[in-house]
Amino acid sequence: MPNLYTPHAMVIREIIPETPDTTTFRLQFKDAEVARAFTFRAGQFAEYSVFGEGECTFCIASSPTRMEYIECSFKQYGRVTTALRRLNVGDIIGLRGPYGNFFPLEEMEGKNIVFIAGGIGLAPVRCVIWNVLDLRDRFKEITIIYGARSVDDLVYKRELKEWADRPDVKTIVTVDPGGETADWKGEIGFVPTIVEKAGLRGTDTVAIVCGPPIMIKYTMPVLTAQGFADKDIITTLENRMKCGVGKCGRCNIGSVYVCKDGPVFTYAQLKELPDEF
Amino acid sequence: MTPPGKRYRIGPGQLAAFASALIADGYVVIAESPDGKGFTALKDGSAVAPDTERPPTALSMKDIVFPRAEPVFLYRKTLDDVQVIDPPSPPRGVVTFGVRPCDAASIQTLSKVFDWDYHDELFDTRAERTIVIGTLCRFTDDRCFCTSVGLSPSSTKGSDLFLLPLDDGGWILQIVTDKGSRFVARCLSAFSETDETGEDLVKRYPGPAVRFDPDRIRSWIPANFDHPLWPSLAETCLGCGQCAFACPVCHCFDLIDEADSFQHGRRMKIWDACQFPLFTKHASGHNPRDTQVKRYRQRVSHKFFIYPERFGEILCTGCGRCSRGCGVGIDIAEIVEQIEKTAVAESVARER
Question: d(Cα B91, Cα B252) in Å, to the nearest integer?
């Protein structure tokens, strides 16, 4: 009996090492029919699986404007991510999805966009960045602020350079104090400090923020001080999930299911939630 | 087709004959197991003798529609490919005899979560292929509280057919749903239609006294997430999860892989419980519900606030299994009573 937990077979086309513990997979559907029918929006996630090991929840890190492949980036932590890291080009993994809500791209049109990300938190943001850059003329000024613990821990290094080289994007890359190398030319400082220094203006601007909880916690007040309304700060949560479709019962925060009502939430929505995430 | 609402008289011994005929026809006949642990498939129809004077079984009948472990798919791997194989189709023609109202109600409640937005075909198919023959419950102890959550010993919610046990050893069979009517049509000729409603029987078993008003709890919970009452409610909870496994409507599950070898294996949907520390733990080590107090608050909130809010039903049938089985004597009805007492005291204080 086919059922909603049945994954699609995906072929690993390319493996891109990002950092010592983070990898990006470029995937293609094994079945061309399934590939044609598959659509998603920036911000949605999927359940990726290694057969015999289990499933893991990651965002779709590639942009829906580039449908020839699906990309995911993951950090090696547990059983499934360790198994994923052992795979080779040509191997098959499973994918269920897309699930969850997405960033309100239409509402963001005509506005300035600020992307703020920390560590592997750049993965869901990168999906929106490429989506926005591929529709560049629909948006005003675009700023990308990205930080990691050290130069080694920066993900998507090739793309960071590509964005920095573009005249129509302002890109600021920072590493935590002590994480710099001798030839580091970017900023040195924690993300909230760099956001403060960037002198952003909250009027007519949407901020998309994703990173570790501690970064989010200290970045939000800075954005508020710069005049961002709570509804114009958008983030994405990643609670532990299994089913991804509002049934298995673990990702809820109060009566809100992150897998169904999220993972994308505005800061205004987050403020309404009980403090349990 | 006999419309729902009609009643038939089943003589002593006729119920067992009915069950035997079903088994002979290839039906899977399920009833409470004699050892009281759960539900079991019967080999012999004569063993069908619903006895609702006994306490409810330790495990509920949710196992039938939402098994403790079931494959969602099988896989076969070769060096360069993976084949995903559909799991076996659930059995057809499952008939459950002697189901108490607090068990029968669970299927409808569970279908709300398994059937919203995305449909869980495995649950749907099992539910569709199961005939529930509910039975008047003649048992009450101080753990029972079906009457506080909108049910009663004679509720027909979730039943396709409903039995009232008569003093002479016979039964009144009531047709509840169209599905029950279609199922029973083939054997109605053996039974005689009756006008008896069994009202006196129903009156004889009113069930436990009402202990709390769930609506009051529902509005209190979201407004009091950090209330000092929470830590005191489940201080002794060991986090063993028996309450969730025994519960007819706890539906949390995990998806895990079982590999037999490099080539073969399956992905399993298995029962899980919000009382386990690893249930919500992120890969990073961060855990939103890192204490038993938070986990117990989640359990109570899910049952009396979150599920009613999202699905319009209380996630509890008042069967009392969680309390009867609890190793440290936590009684959920007592917990809810305490919450209600606090809620009432606070609203009185506010009005003063």
Answer: 23
Using a CB–CB cutoff of 8 Å, tell me whether A87 touches chain B. no
Kindly state whether B230 is in contact with chain A, defined as any CB-CB distance less than 8 angstroms.
no
Task: Render pLDDT for B230-285 as a digit per residue (tens, 0 to 9).
Answer: 999 988 999 999 999 999 999 999 999 999 998 999 999 999 999 999 999 998 88
Q: Which residue has the higher pLDDT, B285 or B147?
A: B147
As a whole number, the mean pLDDT across chain B is: 93
- Rounded to an integer, what distance in angstroms lies between the CA atom of residue B259 and that of residue B246? 28
A·B CB contacts under 8 A: 141
CB A38 within 8 A of CB A44: no
Tally of domains within chain A? 2
Residues A117, A86 share a domain:
no
Give the model confidence (pLDDT) of B76-93 as tens digits.
999 889 999 999 999 999
In a domain, A195, yes or no: yes
Chain A positions touching B73 (Cβ under 8 A) are: 3, 5-7
* Dihedral over alpha carbons B241, B242, B248, B249 (to 10 degrees): -10
A59, A83, A99 - which closes a domain: A99
**pLDDT tens by residue, B293-310:** 999 999 999 999 999 999
Are residues A182 and A74 part of one domain?
Answer: no
Q: Do A192 and A219 share a domain, yes or no?
A: yes
Q: Judge whether A21 lies within some domain.
A: yes
Q: Is ipTM strictly over 0.95?
A: no
Torsion of CA A255, A220, A137, A122, to 10 degrees: -80
B251 touches chain A (CB under 8 A): yes
Among A99, A123, A148, which residue terminates a domain? A99
- Identify the DSSP state of B2: P
Q: What is the CATH number of the domain that holds A198?
A: 3.40.50.80
Does residue A55 lie within any of the structural domains? Answer: yes
Q: pTM for the complete prediction?
A: 0.94
Is residue A144 situated within a structural domain?
A: yes
Give the number of residues written for chain A: 277
Expressed as residue numbers, the domain containing A218 is: 105-236
Touching check for B267 and chain A: CB below 8 Å?
yes
Tell me the per-residue pLDDT of A136-186, one tens digit each, with 9 for 90 and over.
999 999 999 999 999 999 999 999 999 999 999 999 999 999 999 999 999
Question: What is the Cα–Cα distance from A43 to B102, expressed in whole angstroms?
Answer: 42
- With an 8 Å Cβ cutoff, is A271 touching chain B? no
Residue pair B80/A90 in contact by the 8 Å Cβ criterion: yes
Mutate which of A250, A253, A273 to disrupt the B interface (most B C-beta within 10 Å)? A250
> What is the phi-psi region of residue B143: left when phi exceeds 0, alpha when psi lies from -120 to 50, beta otherwise?
alpha
* Alpha carbon distance B233, B338 (integer Å): 8
SS3 A244: coil
Contacts of B225 in chain A (CB under 8 A): 254, 274-276
The confidence band for B38, taking pLDDT boundaries of 50, 70 and 90, is: very high
Same domain, residue pair A161 and A182: yes
Scan residues 92-151 of A and list those with Cβ closer than 8 Å to B: 92, 94
- A167/chain B closest Cα distance in angstroms: 36
**Nearest partner of A213 among A240, A178, A238, judged by Cα:** A238
Closest chain B residue to the Cα of A53, Cα to Cα: B257
CA distance B62 to B158: 12
